[in-house]
Specification:
Number of strands: 3
Largest sheet: 3 strands, mixed
Structural class: mainly alpha
Number of helices: 7
Helix content: 40-55%
Order of helices and strands: HHEHEEHHHH
Strand order of the largest sheet: 1-2-3
CATH class: Mainly Alpha
CATH architecture: Up-down Bundle
């Protein structure tokens, strides 16, 4: 299994949700209540940069973010493209230092895969596209999110779980588990 087994498809999905973002959409609200779309893209860029540091250098420094890039869409797409190329050719295993503490490389990439996919979902919601996380990816990430999420992290990073419905897709279940309200899929021509 490669490092990118879940990270690569998460990156491809997020890249696809970010590509149609225009400068006029950057002030749009997102499911992350405290962030507009520009801030969310800057956060995604920081996350991708940190994961790339870990994969390539074996260490993630927890320095304060440099702020919102002038063009957060382009910055994210560039960083995500570089990370995608790196993770598709890297084998898993090993230890990475995160803020000086050891973490299994596979754990870092699993956390990154969940974060990138769910924030890609957030971007899609903010743009009005409502593109679900691909079902096989969401189904693989849902048990990862459940295993990684403890109550004290939830209150710092995510809202309380929301109902998704018995027949909800894995994408909706993952979004709901991480405090988002799944919206009905928009079908072109239906109002």
């Amino acid at each position: 299994m490669t490092v990118g087994s879940q990270l690569a498809p998460s990156l491809r999905y997020a890249i696809g949700t970010v590509e149609p973002v225009t400068p006029g959409l950057l002030p749009a609200p997102t499911p992350c209540r405290a962030w507009d779309l520009g801030m969310l893209l800057a956060h995604l860029c920081d996350s991708v940069t940190a994961i790339a540091e870990g994969i390539t250098g074996g260490e993630v420094c927890l320095d304060a973010a440099a702020g919102v890039p002038a063009d957060p869409r382009s910055a994210f797409l560039a960083q995500a493209g570089l990370l995608l190329a790196r993770c598709e050719g890297t084998t898993g295993g090993g230890t990475i230092l995160v803020g000086g503490c050891p973490m299994a490389a596979d754990m870092l990439t699993a956390i990154g895969a969940v974060e990138i996919a769910v924030h890609g979902w957030d971007v899609s919601q903010a743009c009005g596209a409502r593109q679900p996380i691909p079902e096989p990816l969401a189904a693989a990430l849902l048990p990862v999110a459940r295993a990684l999420m403890c109550d004290n992290e939830r209150t710092l990073l995510f809202g309380p779980p929301r109902p998704a419905g018995a027949a909800a897709s894995a994408s909706d279940q993952l979004a709901a588990f991480l405090g988002r309200t799944p919206a009905p899929l928009l079908i072109p021509g239906w109002f």
